[in-house]
Amino acid sequence: MLRASATLAAACLAVGIAAAEAPTVDAPMVETPPALAAPAPRWYLRLPEPGALQFHGSVNFDGAGTGNAGILYPAPNVGGFLVAILAHGAMVSGMKSGQKTKLQEAADAVLAPYRATVDTLRADEVMRSALATVEVTALEPGAPTPGDGLVLESIPIVVMTQDRRALVVDNLVAVRDPKTPKKFLYQNMVRVVAAPKLDEDIDAAWNADDGAALREAVVGMYGRTLALALADVGVDPQASTVPFKTMRYVEGETERIERARPLQVECDRVLLRNLRGWLMSVPLRTDAARAECAAVPAAAPAAAPGSTASATPAG
Asked: Would the pTM count as exceeding 0.70?
């Protein structure tokens, strides 16, 4: 999780809970955006000053007087962008600062076996490494803003579930046009939840090869959030005809429930747009789905959120 040199604005983001049903897929299920421009814009990612990646343990709010369960983390304020995100989010209120700190410190204890790796993860290095997977050019800290493209601003935040089985990467993304720098062309939260690791010795699995599995998972998941955000720029969620459904997915060994539009379904994963407008790429809840996927030959990659392709049913 990124500790930017800018002033930190403490905030709480929580996952909403509702009643649920297993996801069903009806084609077409993919939103189609208006054309951004012709040709496609050149993309730049503004890198932060060197600093630690924000990396925390997931917080359980049970017993904290909030009536919610979810993830609590401090997030930097990027020129009012965070305020806009929080306005559409579920905020945990009524908690004193000291109570939040104690909850987070207790939750962060889950990272103890991996401190040798976690403490060496730098936000700028993770972001730079992920650019190998997307057509985006790094914009160094302090470098002048180019006039020939669009600029991404990004705040990655990584959370480990308390069972140590999965990571969650949240990416607060904003897009600016250098010609109108005070106006955001796009702003959203993009969340990727990893499928749970099934290793018997989970600590050994994460720490293998000096923590390579943990580092690679973080970089890969962050890259996925960027790809999803880029594909989503220009999409008008309000124009979607995809109905909201109550979706089940897993976060580690814990089942989560989210009211959302299912945009794409891969074999054992679904891309959602929830009631706040966030994009969420999450693993489906059943072991059966994973088993079926293992038996099916690899398919072509799922269409991006702005594509006109139809989703395909799992299995």
From this structure: yes
